[in-house]
Amino acid sequence: MEHTEALRVGIVGAGGIAAPHIEGWLALGAEVSILRRTGTDALAANYGITIIDDLDELIERAEIVDIISPTSTHPEIAHRAFAMGRHVVCEKPLAVTAAAAAEIAQEAADAGLRLFPAHVVRYFEGYQRLHEQLPAVGALLELTFRRTVAAPASAWFYAQDAGGGLIRDLMIHDFDQALWLAGPVIEVAATQDPPAVDGQVQPPVSAHVTLTHANGAISHVQADWFGNDTDLRSQAEIVGTTGSLRFDTANSAGQREGYLPPASAIDPYQAQLADFVDALRSGRPARVTPEDGVAAVRLVDAAYESLAAGRPVLL
């Protein structure tokens, strides 16, 4: 059946990721509302979207609720959306812990509603090509990922024990890539320099996590929060028995500021949302499933357990 009515989307959150989400939804012809927060007046003026003062009213008016607020708030907002019969798009990570993420996924399934974890890197052209060309390298041996960005402005990102943290917020992108490319992980070993102090991350900071996959491949994952003038740079290399593949955003034209991907013919945020909408309307799985979202948070949990214990963690 052809859908002719505009999709109604309610956004919760007004941080740095709001603009790409709003632009993506508007490009798909959606009617967009946003819950009033600091910063929403400027977004409304810029994009012509509607500000709603009450969360339940926002959910009531929407067909899809797009959660882009701080991670610790995701479960409660998703719960209220599912209780009111709404589908949910939720920025990574789904929740602070894998247990909470699994509860969100189960609640969606029980309600017969769709949950779309927003792991946008699967929609970057360079990473899509890596996935498509993967058979050319033969059996996987070693994968290396690095992601470097300017440290975030908002304080909650630095509360490692309360939903923030370098590994949970930034490195999770490449945890998802490692899972997408090399499959399940059986061991996680993590280091972070400098370590968090009283649960607070102090940039500049780097973390390195080694993932051992069930198929024997090893993924080395590094993430960095550096100074305010740092542009996003993400790199990936895949080595197999018959070849290798590489991707580096430093070689991409149209570089943008901060953590946003390089400009390209296919905007990854719009591509991600278009995939979610098509999956919703057709009933097919999206490129990122609820199980994928939970699996990425499970690696985050294991990485922080490894940091605390000072040893690898078996899954």
Automatic annotation (TrEMBL):
Residues 138-246 form the GFO/IDH/MocA-like oxidoreductase domain. Residues 7-118 form the Gfo/Idh/MocA-like oxidoreductase N-terminal domain. InterPro entries: Gfo/Idh/MocA-like_OxRdtase_N, Gfo/Idh/MocA_oxidoreduct, GFO_IDH_MocA-like_dom, NAD(P)-bd_dom_sf. The keyword NAD applies. Pfam families: GFO_IDH_MocA, GFO_IDH_MocA_C3. PANTHER family: CONSERVED EXPRESSED OXIDOREDUCTASE (EUROFUNG), OXIDOREDUCTASE. This is Oxidoreductase-like. It comes from Microbacterium esteraromaticum.
